[in-house]
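--- STAGE predict ---
source: upstream dedup step, 1 unique chain passed
mode: sequence only
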Amino acid sequence: MENSKYPRYIFDWMGGLILFTGYIIGSMAVGFFGLAGKFVFKLDFMQKPWFMMFANAVVFCLMIAAFDFVIVRQKTGKKLNFNFSSTNFYTYFLIFPMMLGMMFIGEFITSQIPTTGPFFGDFYKFFENLMANLVDDPAVMIITAVIMAPIFEEIIFRGIIQKGLINKGVEPWKAILLASVLFGLIHGNPWQFVGATLLGCVLGLVYYKTKSLLLPMLLHGFNNLCSAVLIFYTKKESFAEVLEIQEWMILGIGIVLFSVFFYLFTFQNKVRYSEA
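--- STAGE serialize ---
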């Protein structure tokens, strides 16, 4: 591993601080640009879907760049680099149904969280209004949710945080869980927290087993694409609504799908992966 082209960095409190600093700087830069447009050019585009897409790209890029230049290059002498290699067809055959199963499980659990009441009702309305800005433009949503988010978020949560924790000596399952919980928290609402955390565990497992960041990126994009299709083409928010079945049936299908393909992927898939 000493001669590997991939740097062996660790993720600790300093790495977290650097990522947070990159987030703050990126947010300030985006905010300054938005205010300049409003007061100098009399253009109020801060709530426009394309600006939100631009803002996300700027913030994520600065977070990754900050970790690269301050942590990775200083400590390892190498630039931040990841394995994006593909894999055999059989592995793809296992991981996509496993992901779909967890999506169904996440949907059921999310459906149990209230969307009405003194706290959840107001919070849910705020969340709906926030999402409405994004879905106003299908093209921007596809680019943001299906392409950009999987790339940037997998680099940060699986590539930097999870891998850095494992390099530090944290047990893999703990690193996967911690990265997944953080992944859920950054979504900022209880409905997406549940699904993001559960799906993050699948993404983390796939990355740990295959050593390729390409696969969790594809799975992440698959999940977000399914959500986009539900929103734009069926005008519904859940698989249960589309299939016209009860949520508990979605849960049952999800458990079966996930259990079978998790077992096959984790215990029966004999392919050995390495990050050379």
